[in-house]
Design goal:
Blueprint lengths: L1 H33 L3 H6 L12 H7 L6 H31 L3 H12 L6 H14 L6 H25 L4 H8 L4 H12 L1 H17 L2 H6 L9 H9 L6 H36 L1
């Protein structure tokens, strides 16, 4: 029995190592090729000669006249903050009401909302474009924010519902005895207890918004002059598809900020998921 348990653990560790290796290899190739010339990249893309490594290509990508990386950062950060703020402001009250609704009805309503998680964003982009054009929001940041918020609501609501549902109803009863209404109970008692899961949802939604290419490319369009990090990278390197001294540095600049945020904040993701697991 002990040998079987050890073998299963070994298989799991080996599987995790292989998956991690598969994810790290592209990142390694991106980093080492950022500091090399075109000839070196084509000759040997898997190694880096420190004697010939240069930061010139990275500086050129930072100062690229076709795309201001700082403007891309600013637009994307604005999207991240706006989408998370609206999604959480909508989903927190909705999840609280659903979690305090009798189970058969709450499950039915929850399934209705989270059905959106199973619909690929690309499938609904075309009808959304027609709707945004009809209301005058096509090619604008508010239109993109509303669409991205709609795509994050199913996941946000699902996670909030699962967390609130296991919080004891005695908290609501104690607040009611003290004269607090439902809104005050939510904002003063329930939400402070949700800080770990709010941080988790914020980080995961931020990753989704930061990495989204199809939505801003289709809704904003090149004619708007507004670029996120992903669409800006496409605009900057699209006409130089074979010039890897532009491709790799620009991609690295686009990836590094959100990667650093995830590394710094990953403990909050783990603590939020662990808190939900323990409470469940």
């Amino acid at each position: 029995m002990k040998r079987t348990h050890t073998s299963a653990a070994t298989v799991r560790v080996a599987f995790v190592c292989l998956v991690s290796l598969g994810m790290l290899v592209p990142m390694y190739i991106l980093v080492v090729n950022t500091f090399k010339s075109q000839r070196e990249i084509l000759a040997n893309p898997f190694s880096l000669d420190l004697g010939t490594a240069t930061f010139r290509h990275l500086a050129d990508a930072w100062n690229n006249p076709d795309f201001s990386i700082l403007q891309g950062y600013g637009t994307t950060v604005l999207l991240v903050l706006a989408v998370n703020a609206i999604a959480m402001a909508v989903c927190a009250p909705a999840a609280y009401v659903l979690a305090r609704t009798p189970r058969p009805l709450s499950r039915l309503l929850l399934f209705f909302f989270i059905a959106g998680m199973f619909v690929p964003t690309q499938v609904i982009l075309v009808p959304v474009i027609f709707v945004l054009r009809a209301i005058g929001l096509m090619g604008t940041l508010p239109g993109l924010i509303l669409f991205m918020t709609a795509t994050t609501i199913p996941f946000t609501l699902f996670v909030f519902f699962g967390y609130i549902r296991v919080l004891p109803r005695s908290l609501d009863e104690a607040a009611a005895i003290d004269g607090a209404g439902r809104y005050r109970t939510l904002w003063r008692i329930i939400l402070p207890l949700m800080r770990p899961i709010v941080a988790t949802v914020f980080i995961l939604n931020s990753l989704s918004v930061w990495n989204d290419f199809a939505s801003p490319q289709m809704i904003l369009g090149p004619g708007s002059g507004v670029y996120t990090v992903t669409t800006g990278v496409y605009a900057a390197v699209g006409q130089y598809s074979t010039d890897y001294t532009k491709v790799f540095p620009t991609l690295l600049l686009a990836v590094v900020p959100i990667l650093l945020v995830f590394i710094v904040m990953q403990r909050h993701v783990m603590s939020g998921l662990a808190a939900g697991a323990v409470k469940g």
